[in-house]
């Protein structure tokens, strides 16, 4: 279905067409009309399937005529689990908000930076995108009010609940007006999601698109059995011989992310690490450089995997296996997004073989583990 068939105004259609978006994804086809009709929505779709645009466009359309509110009284609240996702979602609101025929302001607030500039920037905000902790800090300081709130959106709710935000979310929900539109988006339909759905949503439209097992079919997966001491050389060998100009590398710890990055730089491969111990400015800069093609390799930890949203990322490398099969799927889901093909390469030591077997069984997909001992890594 084309975006032009969804009742969107001409200024949104032009912005979409200018960015080569003409065909709406399934989640957008179903969610946009429902949100325009002010229905509650539960949207289940893989990261990269178009969920953000699915709610941004109709929410902005519904705001017309409602934005003349008191200062610091927001209209829409979007709650997300990570700083990176907060910034990315606000960027989408800001991009389309610039096309609106009425005054509009969006803002992202999150921890890791000083709260004072964010408090000052709360002036006349219509859409606030926030992480739970910083949102509660701002409400505790009377920096914003919810009397005019018409819509609540929980984005990546599965990740939020898994990360243990329940107490904060309960407190946030207790502060909001009872009468509002609720939009809940998630990559998986977990028991946690079903529990919160019963509390939050009234007669919702449930949209469940593209099971996890299907989406990874767009990803060509290979694996190498490699000794721990040869991992660094194999990584550099693959990046250089495969001419990888944009590769996302996952490690299991902050320490390892920094170490891998240091060795890549030492061997002439432009790389940056992105993890929870980096400043917010450093993380934003690294992510923007990577997205813009100015950085060849980005080394990340699992906690930030959801915040890395690149439409045509060609390569993901698992330098170390994650703890769970679900995290493995979230990692490799950074590539092979929507209709784009991608490639994932996983390093497996002898000690990892059993755990990798478990991951393969859970995702119901076999990945051949190739030997690497005959690969000449001299000079890499």
How would you characterize the overall build of this protein?
- The protein is an alpha/beta fold and 380 residues long.
- The protein folds into 2 domains: 3-210, P-loop containing nucleotide triphosphate hydrolases (Rossmann fold, 3-Layer(aba) Sandwich), CATH 3.40.50; 213-371, Rossmann fold (3-Layer(aba) Sandwich), CATH 3.40.50.300.
- Helix content is 39%, strand content 17%.
- The protein contains 15 helices and 14 strands.
- It has helices at residues 10-18, 26-36, 51-63, 83-97, 115-121, 132-140, 157-162, 166-175, 191-200, 212-215, 231-241, 254-266, 280-291, 325-332, 353-363, and strands spanning 41-44, 76-79, 106-109, 127-130, 151-154, 181-186, 205-208, 219-225, 247-250, 271-274, 297-300, 315-318, 342-348, 369-371.
- A 7-stranded parallel β-sheet has the order 3-4-2-5-6-1-7, sandwiched between helices. The protein has a 7-stranded parallel β-sheet with strand order 10-11-9-12-13-8-14, with helices on both faces.
- Helix 3 packs across helix 4 (83-97) and helix 6 packs across helix 8 (166-175).
- The protein is globular, with a radius of gyration of 21 Å.
Would you state the CATH class of the largest domain? Alpha Beta
Derived from helix and strand composition plus strand pairing, the structural class reads: alpha/beta
Gyration radius, in Å: 21 Å
Main sheet: strand order: 3-4-2-5-6-1-7
The CATH topology label of the largest domain is Rossmann fold
| Mean of all residue-level pLDDT scores | 88
| DSSP helical segment count | 15
Strand fraction equals: 15-25%
CATH superfamily of the largest domain: P-loop containing nucleotide triphosphate hydrolases
**Into which percent range does the helicity of residues fall?**
25-40%
